[in-house]
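Example record

One chain of 387 residues, shown exactly as stored in the release files.
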Amino acid sequence: MRSRWMILAVLFVVRLTMAFQFQSVAAVAPLLATRFGVGLADIGLLIGLYFTPGVALALPGGAIGQRFGDKPTVLGALLLMLVGGLAMALSDSWTVQIAGRLVAGAGGVLLNVQMTKMVADWFAGKEIATAMAIFVNSWPAGVALSLLSLPLIGTAYGVSAVYLAVAALIGLAFVLLAAAYQAPASTVITAASSARLDRNAAIAVIAAGLIWGLYNVGFAMIFSFGPSMLVERGWSISAAGSIISIVLWLAVIAVPLGGFLADRSGRPQFILVAGCIVFAMLMLALPRSGAVVLTVAALGLVSGQPAGPILSLPARVLRPETRALGMGIFYTLYYATMMLGPVVAGACAKSTGSATAAFDFGAAVLLACPVLLLGFNRIPANSPRTA
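Predicted structure tokens for this chain:
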């Protein structure tokens, strides 16, 4: 299989399993609380633990991929996800739930870092923004599908059945990747060449990682604080959650649309800058607007469009032999920013007594993205160096 679009389809399906595993806790949270006798704070901790290994493992994950190769690293990552999921399915201990979640999350980090590099290998210099947008769309698509299916499984058969169903999907993804994925010829040709990441390229990747992290912090404000903001304005909890979920469904359309527009127009940075600015303006408007549904719909259509152009930035400065290490740096910045951003937003909301402050903070970090892009473009290493 040498078609890059078929390869992208394989990688999309494999990454879909990570979204299912991440959402498997939140989807059956009430059942978990009953089974283990824990509260919402404990459930929230278990949800967040999935990304905790990212800060420590993203950078060495890139080095691991560079040392052992793309396919073996992703297969190993899937095994970690499988082991962690099975441990959670087969144990009635809350301690094992935590340990299993961390092991699964470590696998998810390795998978995320390495597979992004694999997409870049296949699409660098040709429809990279579209490919990255489709690839990253596996996350909201997977979360949306898991919300439709996992609660039904949990209600009918219990929490363990949910974990086992996700483990079965991971097992199928393992077989699919093992049978169907091949590396592009360019990475084989350059495998023996120098894998040293020069200083300017490293700085450029750091800037790109910060852009991706801040963009996702802004996006996360919608789901983290949107329902609370609407409840403050008199909405019911159920209605607030339903309205905010519109953003996720529309983002499934907006993310690949942004990548397509970026490649078709030949101006990916314009899509990035314009998208972030309009996104920020809508973030400021939503808490203050009477047209909530229209503003939320606009957010959904706009918020996803910068994703593909942002994820295409590292491919501009990383050679095939340095992409694994470079993507490790990129995702280290992403995970660190995503860990700290919600904490700062929560502190802002607490200090003002309103969730509106979190939206204002989200707008501020989104407006920082074009500024960082300006710095990215001024770095001398920022010339196309693809194979």
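Notes: The chain has two domains: 4-189, 199-378.
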